Amino acid sequence: MTETLKAFALFACVSFMIACNGDTCQTCTKDGETDMEICDSEFASDSLYLDRISMTEADGWDCAE
What we know:
There is one protein chain. The chain has helices spanning 3-19, 46-58; strands at 25-29, 36-39, 62-64. It contains two helices and three strands; from the N terminus they run αββαβ. The relative contact order is 0.17. The chain has 65 residues and is α+β, with helices and mostly antiparallel strands. The protein has a three-stranded antiparallel sheet, with helices on one face.
C-alpha cells in the first residue's frame, strides 16, 4: 500500500469509530412537544439511563429505539 492509501484507511477507521460509538438512544415523542433523544452515553450507568426513560414515559412521552 502506498502511504497515502494507508493514511486514508486509518482516517476512515477512526471516523467510523467516532461516528458509531455504540450509543443506545431512544427518541421520545409527545403531542405538542419537540421530540427529544435520550442516549445512554449521557448517563454514568445503564440503570440511570433506563430510569430516565421510565420517568420520561411516566410524564406522558412515548419513547422507542
